[in-house]
Q: What sequence folds into this?
């Protein structure tokens, strides 16, 4: 070798052991590299990220955490179905009396009634018996002068009579508008005082007349009355016709 080249080679031989010792102390190269145990190369670039590994096994449940704070109130839900009725509760105390109500309109009360008795003995046959002893005749619907009851309020009426029988037989009839409605016959027993009676329900129109009279030619006229024996006739309105009033 010529002069400069020989000088450069010798310098490398002298410096190489020293560099190797220093490299050994500072950095240990990868034994797979070509410069192993001689001289380390420059650091390489970072490699690419590897593929994700497989999922590991599920871990054990951790300890129960503390109770969290109460969240905000949610919206009101739909109304549920009605439940089964419960038991009846105890009876409460009576309440205080309420205020007195206003007076209502009075309803009209229909009244028609009479009750009369006989004062004369042996009334005439085939004519109305005139009962002149007045027990009740407030509406004056019975006429004592004629012995007839005159209907002023259409409706249903009840009539009854109780007659004392003495001296001879009795046969009487109750008339409505010149027509006999019912008959009563009683046979007199000697040395005795008997009773004959009858009753009926009648529907009357305004203007109808009702009366009692001895039936026949006078042989059955034993109707009797004195200070201790009465023969009576009565009648009264049960209820009026609502379609008329």
A:
């Amino acid at each position: 070798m010529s002069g400069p080249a020989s000088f450069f080679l010798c310098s490398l031989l002298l410096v190489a052991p020293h560099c190797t010792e220093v490299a050994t102390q500072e950095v240990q190269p990868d034994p797979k590299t070509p410069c192993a145990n001689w001289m380390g190369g420059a650091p390489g670039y970072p490699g690419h990220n590897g593929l994700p590994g497989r999922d590991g096994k599920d871990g054990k449940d951790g300890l129960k955490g503390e109770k969290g704070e109460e969240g905000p109130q949610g919206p009101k839900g739909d109304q549920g179905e009605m439940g089964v009725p419960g038991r009846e509760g105890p009876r409460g105390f009576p309440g205080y009396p309420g205020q007195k109500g206003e007076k209502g309109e009075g309803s009209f009360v229909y009244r028609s009634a009479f009750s009369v008795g006989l004062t004369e003995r042996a009334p005439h046959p085939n004519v109305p018996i005139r009962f002149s002893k007045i027990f009740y005749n407030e509406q004056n619907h019975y006429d004592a002068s004629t012995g007839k009851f005159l209907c002023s309020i259409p409706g249903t009426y009840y009539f009854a009579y109780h007659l004392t029988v003495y001296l001879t037989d009795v046969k009487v009839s109750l008339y409505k508008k010149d027509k006999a409605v019912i008959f009563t016959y009683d046979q007199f027993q000697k040395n005795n005082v008997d009773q004959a009676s009858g009753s009926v329900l009648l529907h009357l129109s305004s203007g109808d007349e009702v009366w009692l009279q001895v039936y026949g030619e006078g042989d059955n006229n034993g109707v009797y009355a004195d200070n201790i024996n009465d023969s009576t006739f009565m009648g009264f309105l049960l209820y009026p016709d609502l379609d008329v009033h």
Observations:
- Residues 3-26 form the longest helix (24 residues).
- The longest strand covers residues 155-176.
- Confidence is low (pLDDT under 50) at residues 15-27.
